Every structure is written in C-alpha cells, then in structure tokens.
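Tip: read the tokens left to right.
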C-alpha cells in the first residue's frame, strides 16, 4: 500500500489534498473515511498535507464548509419545503473531473470518483444537520449544488403521489378539466372567461384542496380509464393517482382530509382510501391486462317494441369487434379493437326498454355495443334485436383492481 501511496505522491509532486489521496487509496488502506486513510500515509511518510494546493481538485473540498450548509439551510427556509428523504447532485468543473479520472487511469485504480465523494460528503452533512435519509430510488427533494465558482444551491422538489378511488354521484361532471372548445382554454365570453367547458371536474374537486395544503404548483389526475361525462361511477369506485408537482408540504393527515373533501363535495363526488404511493403507480393503474374488467348497468331504449325472446341471445355475447367509435374518432386512432363480454344479464322494463348489466374487459365501449355505431361495433344489441336501440343511461358499477 505504501508503494501505491508513493506513486500517487510522485505523480502529483506531493501536491494532493487528503480527500484526493485517501480516495485513491480507498481499496488499499484501511480507514473509516478518506481523511483517516490519508492521515495514516502522512504519519508513515512524515509529511503534512493540510495546507497543500491540490493539483487534482483545486482544493474543491474546502468549499464543503459551514457557508455551504448555511446556503442550503437558507434555501430550505426560503422555499418552506418539508422533506423526509433527499438526494444530492453536484456540478463540478470538467477539468477537475478529468484530472481525477486521468490519475486513476494512469495508476489503474478503480475507486470512487471525485463527484461521488462530493455528493456523499454533502449528503452526510445534510443527514447530520436535519436527520433525514438519503434515498437513491425515490426521494422527496434533490439538492443540486453548483461548485464551479462560488457555491450555489438549488432544490428540486419531486412530485407527491396520492392514490385512491373515486365515485362520481352526479351526471355532467367530466373526470378531468375540459378546456373550452371555442377558446381552447384561453378564456372567452362563451365560457365566462374561465377557459373551461365545464365548471368543475372529478380532478378539480379534489386537487384544489391538495394544492392549497401542499402549496404545490400544479396537480395532474391519472385515472384507471374514464367514464363519459353523463355516466355515474358507483360501487367501490375507480382507481386514480393524483400527482402534485413541487409540493412544499408533504406530511398530510389524509384520513381527515378525505373526510373534509367528501363533506364539501357531498352529492357530487367522493374519494376513498387516500394514501401516498410511489411514482410507478401512475403507470400501473393505466395498464390493462386480461384479468381486469368493468361492470356496467345500462338502461336501453328501443325505437320500437322488441322481441323479448331475442333478449336471451344477448347473454351469448363473447368476442366483440369494435372500430374506434365515431364520437371519439377525433382524438383516438381509427382501428378495430377486439374485446370480450364476460357476463351479461337483463331485466325487462316494458315493450321498448330494459336494463342490462354487463361485465366486460376494460376498453369496450358500451354505448356503441348497444347502438352498433353504424356497423362499427359487431355484434351489437340493435342488430341482435332487429330494432334500433340506444343507451339512455349508463352507470359504472365496478372497476377491477389493477
């Protein structure tokens, strides 16, 4: 180990700081940190590296001082940000990084890079001051430290993800904010300068409360599919994830908040089992699999009296070929999707109307299954009954878990 230390000192003409020397010797000299390793070499060789001008890092580590941690504290207080987990990133001169790598390559050393040591030491300092945990996979905030000149501190606030289920108890409410079709959200006389086609949505009725409490910048709603604006969402509810961007407050009493939100929105929407989740849930609840299903209750109105004996044929529905419905063609790719009916039952109301309860794979359009959509959905209720049929009222009863 002393031979390697001598090589490093010779290569740098003895102008190397303890952090850089200890880092290069991390695989050969025992010690709890790089300073301790370097101290062993200084003692063995009888040298003093405390005030040396380091040719590797330009004394970069001198910047990791009380002034830097004061800047970090000032930035935390300025933003008023709460956090339990964090990560540190740094910006270091390319020249310093290149010199560090060149020395390692010349001596065939596979050791920690200077940037990783800087990040680790700053992270250790933050942990000691705030008693918060460094987290590499998923963290509340990221400290970005620019050390090229005078240290600068920037804090990246990562999103907060809240998962739950919602019920929509009133028709005419869209799932997400719907921009005015005339002004495209800019605001005009037709939308009363709100920029919205509808005054409220399932998304807004919950997100406004979260934005207020978290002091977040923006909220985005991710649902496990969506129901039409005139369709109720009943039963146990539809899974969703609410993403709050740049939340300054993260520690929320979710059971109390859930109760308060539901009281305010009574008769319109309700939200259940709110809990913090990981980012991956945002994608997972949108993914469809052969095991997922949805159950609907449809009130079917026929143009003329139907043959009641033919209703039984509807229970034989299985594979359905649906070309993208005309009503959503402007925003969806025009293609044929194959979906399956998993179960179907009916209840006669009178000569022209009946209720139909249907369990299907996710993604099957129920209104078009009934009307036929000018032949774009096959088979369909209208052709089986031999009479024009439409869905007058539709409720979602159940959305299976992802």
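Filled-in amino acids:
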């Amino acid at each position: 180990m002393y031979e390697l230390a001598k090589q490093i000192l010779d290569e740098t003409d003895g102008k190397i700081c303890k952090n850089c020397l200890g880092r290069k010797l991390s695989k050969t000299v025992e010690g709890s940190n790089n300073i301790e390793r370097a101290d062993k070499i200084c003692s063995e060789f009888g040298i003093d590296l405390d005030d040396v001008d380091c040719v590797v890092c330009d004394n970069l580590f001198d910047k990791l001082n009380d002034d830097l941690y004061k800047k970090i504290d000032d930035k935390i207080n300025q933003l008023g940000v709460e956090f339990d987990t964090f990560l540190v990133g740094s910006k270091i001169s390319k020249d310093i990084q290149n010199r560090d790598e060149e020395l390692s390559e010349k001596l065939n050393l596979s050791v920690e890079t200077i940037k990783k040591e800087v990040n680790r030491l700053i992270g250790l300092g933050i942990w000691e001051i705030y008693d918060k945990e460094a987290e590499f996979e998923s963290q509340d905030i990221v400290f970005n430290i620019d050390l090229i000149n005078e240290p600068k501190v920037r804090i990246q606030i990562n999103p907060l993800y809240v998962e739950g289920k919602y019920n929509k108890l009133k028709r005419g409410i869209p799932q997400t904010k719907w921009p005015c079709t005339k002004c495209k959200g800019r605001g005009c006389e037709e939308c009363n300068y709100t920029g919205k086609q509808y005054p409220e949505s399932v998304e807004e009725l919950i997100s406004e409360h979260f934005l207020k409490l978290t002091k977040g910048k923006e909220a985005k709603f991710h649902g496990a599919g969506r129901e039409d604006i005139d369709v109720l969402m009943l039963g146990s509810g539809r899974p969703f994830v609410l993403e709050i961007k740049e939340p300054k407050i993260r520690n929320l009493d979710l059971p109390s908040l859930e109760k308060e939100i539901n009281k305010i929105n009574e008769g319109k929407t309700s939200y259940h089992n709110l809990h913090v989740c990981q980012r991956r849930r945002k994608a997972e609840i949108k993914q469809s699999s052969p095991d997922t299903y949805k159950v609907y209750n449809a009130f079917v109105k026929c143009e003329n009296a139907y043959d009641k004996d033919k209703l039984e044929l509807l229970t034989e529905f299985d594979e359905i070929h649906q070309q993208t419905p005309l009503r959503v063609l402007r925003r969806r790719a025009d293609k044929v999707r194959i979906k399956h009916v998993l179960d179907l039952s009916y209840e006669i109301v009178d000569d022209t109307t009946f209720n139909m309860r249907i369990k299907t794979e996710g993604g099957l359009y129920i209104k078009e299954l009934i009307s036929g959509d000018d032949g774009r959905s096959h088979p369909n209720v209208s052709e089986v009954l031999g009479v024009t049929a439409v869905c007058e009222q539709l409720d979602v009863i159940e959305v299976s878990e992802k």
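The mean pLDDT is 93. The two ends are 56 Å apart (CA to CA).
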